[in-house]
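User: Just a sanity check before I run the rest of the batch. Below are the structure tokens for the first item. I only need the designed sequence back.
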């Protein structure tokens, strides 16, 4: 009778423990996959949603580039529907990181293009001034 009582007590503790060990890794892997999927989806949406206006922010020079890297856009609310709070947080974090990177890249290109245009205008103005000085001296 004592053995049966001990056996029941041990089995009452051991069976749930073994079941937990069996299903916990599967649950954790499923959560990991959904987290990875949420992050990949956030990055893809950010690449698709970043506006081309950040190119023109780069025309402001380094200030525009700095602003582009600091401004963290919010993902569309529709993208967060149906996601668990953890997946929504991961999606938002990955979205903002990827969007800041894309915004900054566009602003850097805009900065270089604006710098090249300014240099070209400067060269043309210098050429006009030099040629007008040469023609007036004759």
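Assistant: Here's the designed sequence for the first item:
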């Amino acid at each position: 009778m004592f053995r049966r009582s001990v056996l029941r007590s041990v089995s009452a503790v051991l069976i749930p423990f073994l079941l937990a060990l069996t299903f916990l890794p599967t649950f954790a892997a499923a959560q990991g996959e959904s987290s990875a999927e949420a992050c990949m989806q956030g990055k893809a949406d950010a690449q698709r949603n970043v506006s081309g206006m950040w190119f023109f922010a780069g025309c402001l020079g380094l200030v525009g580039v700095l602003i582009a890297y600091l401004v963290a856009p919010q993902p569309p609310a529709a993208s967060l529907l149906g996601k668990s709070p953890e997946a929504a947080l991961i999606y938002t974090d990955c979205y903002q990181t990827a969007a800041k990177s894309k915004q900054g890249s566009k602003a850097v290109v805009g900065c270089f293009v604006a710098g090249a245009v300014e240099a070209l205008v400067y060269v043309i103005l210098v050429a006009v001034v030099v040629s007008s000085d040469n023609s007036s001296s004759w």
